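User: Show me a protein chain along with its predicted structure.
Assistant: Here is one chain, sequence first, then structure tokens.
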Amino acid sequence: MDPGLLERTLKKLIEEREGEAESAAAELLAEARQDPRGVVEFCLSSNQALAAAAQNLLLNLGETIIVPAIEAKPVIPDDKVWLAQAAVEAELGLRKRLAEHLKSLLGDGTLLPPRQKGRRVERSEPPVRVCDQAYLELRRLLNLGESRGSQILEADRYLELTFEERNPHIQRLKATQQWSNLLEEGEEV
């Protein structure tokens, strides 16, 4: 990505505030995806040597290939399947890296500053540590079958616990790769 484009975009956002953030992000995303899109196009080439070279390159571009691979319009069924598999591999690799990063934060007991919601705080928010937020984000990342409503309720229940009550949940996750369910049966949303 062109560093000049990024700097110009950020300066534009400073001048125009947040109103242009969405269009600026779209512009940056288009720029960032331009090269992987080109590689995807070469993967679909009728020139077998060129297609093979592009496929080898594509497999090494990581998560940058996900959107271009799923937006491609291959005609040949093998190409459709290969691009789908490449996108899944890239997504799983990214998910694994993100999970490892979140797991590394499970030992960080640093207290986060209280969040401000508007100008007035109607109820006091429970204190949250880095490890607590990492635990909740890891749960969201890995527990794909849980509804968003249940995730929110589980997070609320978890944060209602004291630090001493939260710690065993974090330790269980670290030891067994399983999280605790704090909702009662039938309470799920």
